[in-house]
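Hi R.,

As promised on Friday, here is the backbone we talked about, encoded as structure tokens. Could you run it through your design pipeline when you get a chance and send me back a sequence?
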């Protein structure tokens, strides 16, 4: 068994882990990264549909959905979105903005990942790839026993930053293995569940609507109480609903389903048009064009598949003329389009989730340092912590902010000799 000694060891080579390692090394700590996959930053490559929306100019507590938002903002304000943009500018990553969303100017996630990897190389940070943790325990320092296909290692380090990710998107290496490490080290872990994920429904009209993408507003109700809402392009599928607005509210629906509560999604399929504006036209239009079928009558308002589902939900025949159907039936169809109900029965799994809710409880972490309140020298960063943000660069901002703080504070530990 070969032995190694470091000031700081980062477990996990994702966004937060790489930022933590770079920051620690930039501040004089002899640093190493232990990563259990074949490369660093795999999950970064899938963010923003490969374009890497790495932060957002709108950055406040409403952008995060976990319980302790003050904790999150305290960390982010120590290394905010402007500082993240400046950090990457120093590494040669110019940025561009679209409605507040910030992307690398190249619009390629690989450029962000490569820039971090090159900085890691420049700083002389040692990397152990395809390396698995067998055990971690603390005496005077931390002792980490780990192994790969070639050898067993014992790593002696003054500080550890646990940045091993969550359960979300396990194909990227984020397979939940970090939670076991945390539990073995005495941490409390809130049950991880998917977030930013598709929702399943038993609505019998899902198959009719499948394939449609249409702007609307989705509201989530838990036991009859509205919990969250969002507006944008909703995707209708044969199993339920998807799209960015669904992702934004999904964490509440997932938690409700997991807790066996009654969860419903009410979708306003024409949220940009008021009911009264359509209703006032219906009687006039029926008199003017009574020969039109229900499908034809509403074709200029919304996709015909959605019209079909709304009509069938009130037992109306879409091939019936509106002259025969009458204004009251047309009013009912409009009401369905404005408030179409999906009973939420489930959700897609971790393999489809962009992030997780749950993780290491924030009550165990010092928000000014990201250090464990129970184990001196142990720090946390990124998705392994019970923090989840909305779509829009917020989860990467959290990764970079928490990684930077953990790396900075671990390098300032009194028992680390400055190089």
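Update: got your reply. Pasting your designed sequence below so it's all in one thread:
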């Amino acid at each position: 068994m070969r032995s190694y000694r470091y000031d700081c060891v980062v477990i996990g080579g994702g966004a937060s882990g790489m930022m933590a390692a770079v920051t620690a090394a930039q501040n004089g700590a002899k640093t190493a990264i232990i990563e259990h996959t074949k490369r660093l930053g795999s999950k970064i490559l899938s963010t923003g549909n490969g374009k890497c929306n790495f932060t957002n100019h709108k950055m406040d507590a409403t952008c995060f959905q976990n319980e302790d938002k003050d904790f999150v903002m305290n960390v982010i304000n120590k290394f905010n979105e402007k500082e993240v943009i400046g950090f990457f500018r120093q590494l040669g990553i110019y940025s561009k903005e679209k409605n507040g969303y910030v992307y690398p100017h190249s619009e390629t996630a690989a450029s962000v990942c490569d820039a971090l990897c090159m900085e890691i190389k420049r700083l002389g940070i040692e990397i152990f790839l395809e390396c698995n943790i067998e055990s971690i325990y603390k005496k005077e320092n931390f002792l980490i026993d780990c192994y790969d296909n070639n050898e067993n290692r014992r790593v002696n380090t003054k500080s550890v930053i646990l940045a091993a990710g969550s359960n979300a998107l396990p194909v990227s290496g984020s397979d939940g293995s970090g939670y076991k490490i945390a539990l073995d080290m005495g941490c409390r872990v809130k049950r991880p569940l998917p977030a930013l994920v598709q929702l399943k429904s038993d609505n019998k009209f899902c198959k009719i609507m499948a394939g449609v993408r249409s702007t609307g507003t989705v509201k989530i109700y838990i036991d009859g109480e509205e919990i969250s809402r969002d507006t944008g392009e909703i995707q209708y599928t044969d199993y339920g609903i998807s799209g960015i607005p669904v992702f934004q509210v999904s964490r509440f629906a997932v938690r409700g389903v997991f807790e066996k509560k009654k969860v419903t999604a009410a979708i306003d399929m024409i949220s940009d048009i008021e009911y009264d504006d359509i209703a006032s036209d219906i009687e006039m239009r029926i008199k003017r064009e009574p020969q039109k079928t229900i499908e034809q009558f509403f074709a200029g308002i919304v996709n015909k598949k959605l019209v079909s589902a709304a009509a069938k939900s009130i037992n109306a025949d879409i091939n019936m003329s509106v002259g025969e159907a009458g204004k009251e039936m047309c009013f009912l169809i409009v009401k369905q389009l404005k408030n179409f109900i999906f009973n939420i029965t489930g959700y897609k799994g971790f393999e489809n989730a962009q992030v997780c809710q749950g993780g290491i409880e924030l009550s165990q972490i010092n928000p000014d340092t990201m250090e464990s309140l129970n184990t001196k020298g142990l720090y946390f960063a990124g998705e392994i912590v019970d923090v989840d943000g909305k779509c829009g660069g917020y989860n990467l901002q959290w990764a970079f902010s928490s990684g930077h703080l953990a790396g900075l504070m671990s390098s300032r530990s009194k028992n680390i000799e400055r190089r």
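One thing I noticed while checking it: The two ends are 27 Å apart (CA to CA).

Thanks again,
M.
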